Structures are given as structure tokens and as C-alpha cells.
Fold this protein.
Amino acid sequence: MTHRIKKDQEYESCQPTYYGSTGPEYTRIRVIEPPRHEAGRVGIATVHEDGRLLRRRIINARQLHATGTVGAEQLPRRTGYRLVTDEGSSEQ
């Protein structure tokens, strides 16, 4: 399943980053620069609990997935990030 990566979309890690006292914690990232072509790199930043953007970096667009499952069996993904909010801008 292919999806369009847009600026301001938020993704969450498919696997827990660590287990806190309240249960599993997941890393949340936001797209700050969309890819310039299909197999490109994407500029992202980690989203802090208070909404601040931390640790800006570039990752491969193939790490961003529309869902947290894969295949006809709907098995959970083990790597990458799943789409959480699709409030991205339409500009590219």
C-alpha cells in the first residue's frame, strides 16, 4: 500500500521505544520536509510530549508506512513508523 508523504504528518514507531511505568512508550515523529521524489529521503523531527520538535534528521521514505500491519495476514510491523495523523499540507 502506497501513501503520499506530506509535510506535518505524524508517525509513531511500530515497536515500543521503551517500557515505562505506565506501559509501552512509542517515539513520535513529524515530517518537516517531504521527499522530492518517490524513493527519496524525508526530513523529520522527533515530537516531544509538549509538542516541541527535537532531534531533526533525515530518514529514508521507505521507513514511513500508512499502517502498522503488513501482508494479507495483517501481521504487525516490526520496523519503521506508522502514520498517526494525516493532517499534512497539500503542498510539495
Notes: The radius of gyration is 13 Å. Residues 10-85 form one domain.
